[in-house]
Amino acid sequence: MDARSQAVTEGADGRSRVGVRVRYFAAAKAAAGVAEEVCEVGDGSTIDALLGEAGLGGHPVLGRSTFLVNGVATTDRAHLLRDADQLDVLPPFAGG
Description:
With 96 residues, the chain is an alpha+beta fold. It has a single domain (15-90), classed as Beta-grasp domain (Ubiquitin-like (UB roll), Roll). Helix content is 19%, strand content 31%. The chain is built from three helices and six strands; from the N terminus they run ββαβααβββ. The chain has helices spanning 26-32, 47-53, 60-63; strands spanning 9-10, 16-24, 36-42, 66-69, 72-74, 86-90. Strands 1, 2, 3, 4, 5 and 6 form a six-stranded mixed sheet that branches. Strand 4 and strand 5 form a beta hairpin. The relative contact order is 0.26. This is Molybdopterin synthase sulfur carrier subunit. InterPro entries: Beta-grasp_dom_sf, Mopterin_synth/thiamin_S_b, ThiS/MoaD-like.
C-alpha cells in the first residue's frame, strides 16, 4: 500500500482524521525520540497542531525549525496538512 492510499478515518469528535508521515532529523529526532512516525490528525490540521498533538508544540528546537511538506520548504506553521502528506522537520544545522 502506498502512502497516498491510506484511509481517512473518523475521530471520536466526528471529525475526519488523516495520516501524515513525519520524519525528524538531528536535534528534532532527539526531541521526538523517534526518527519517523505516522501521526493521525484532524483533516485540515496545521503543522503547529500536529506538533502539539505529538507533544512537541513548545519544544525550543522546533521553534527554529524549517519544514518540508512533500519536499517543498516552508516555515509557515499554519500550513494545512492533507491525508498522506509527508512532513520533514529540519532543525538548524551547523557546519560548512
